[in-house]
Specification:
Structural class: alpha/beta
Distance between the termini: 69 Å
Largest sheet: 7 strands, mixed
Strand content: 15-25%
Strand order of the largest sheet: 4-3-2-1-5-6-7
Number of strands: 7
Number of helices: 12
Radius of gyration: 19 Å
Shape: globular
Helix content: 40-55%
């Protein structure tokens, strides 16, 4: 059957791919810098801190661990450290409270940071009768929220352990990153009866080579310089929905951008404390 395409005049939407109909096909989308401009976890963390869901010291410790993880690449010791530290900053916090606050944060911050071009790609898959999942290292509760707001099928994310409605601060399984992300996609395909050769995957990061290599249609979206080079070498499709100014920055190391985002959050909170009246 012929593929479906969009007739929208929006420049980003015009770049969207035609998606062939296939009952065993699906699409898997990374989140940060693929669907959402920037790192979703920082937007949520900033919003939660503003609502006093956790302390400034908790936020600072979490951000520092994330900077070290991103700067360290995929070495096992860095991944293990990230596993041990991820989500520890919400230990003892109510799950329902975090989800409710995150709904507000999505409306305030995330909704305006969705790439319309990537959103159009996801919709083409949905319109073709295919299922669409987000696959991300972001906590699964947050990933599911984004997927639900975008009308997608669901999300796979890093899973936090819960007990009696509270987060324990420990992970269930592995941080969904690199090979672990690919393994999660393979397991999902087996459960859902998908043919990975008929599936598509979209990501901005070289770290997602394992997931991209699983499918018949790998697409580099807003790629970092390493993924752009690899995609060209392998003949993969490349889609860039960033502005020219942002696209020119793709050579900036992810760790530097992460550190800047973390510093901005902590700095803003510190300024807020200095401006607050003394009790």
């Amino acid at each position: 059957m012929p593929g479906r395409s969009t007739g929208s005049a929006v420049p980003e939407v015009e770049q969207a791919l035609a998606i062939p109909d296939h009952p065993e096909a699906a699409a898997f989308f990374d989140v940060d810098n693929t669907v959402v401009v920037g790192a979703s976890i920082f937007y949520f963390a900033k919003g939660l801190a503003a609502r006093k869901f956790f302390s400034t010291s908790d936020l600072r410790r979490f951000l520092w661990q994330q900077v070290k993880f991103r700067a360290g690449g995929e070495a096992q010791d860095h991944i293990t450290s990230a596993q041990e530290s991820a989500l520890a900053f919400i230990a003892g916090k109510p799950v329902a409270e975090l989800v409710a606050m995150s709904e507000e944060i999505y409306d305030e911050t995330i909704a305006a940071r969705i790439y319309s071009g990537t959103r159009a790609l996801a919709q083409l898959h949905l319109d073709a009768g295919e299922r669409v999942w987000l696959v991300t290292a972001t906590p699964e509760e947050l990933a599911r929220l984004i997927a639900r707001r975008l009308g997608l099928t669901g999300a796979l994310g890093t899973r936090a352990e819960e007990q009696d409605g509270l987060f324990t601060g420990r992970l269930l399984g592995e941080l969904l990153h690199g090979e672990a992300k690919a393994a999660a996609v393979r397991d999902l395909a087996l459960r859902e009866g998908l043919d990975l050769a008929q599936c598509a995957a979209y990501s901005d990061s070289i770290n997602d080579i394992p997931m991209l290599s699983l499918v018949g249609r790998p697409v580099a979206v807003n790629p970092d310089s390493a993924l752009r080079d690899e995609a060209r070498r392998r003949g993969w499709e490349i889609r860039d929905f960033r502005t020219g100014r942002k696209a020119a920055r793709i050579g900036v190391p992810t760790a530097l951008a992460t550190a800047a985002a973390g510093g901005a959050v902590v700095g803003a909170m510190a300024i807020g404390r200095r401006r607050s009246p003394v009790a």
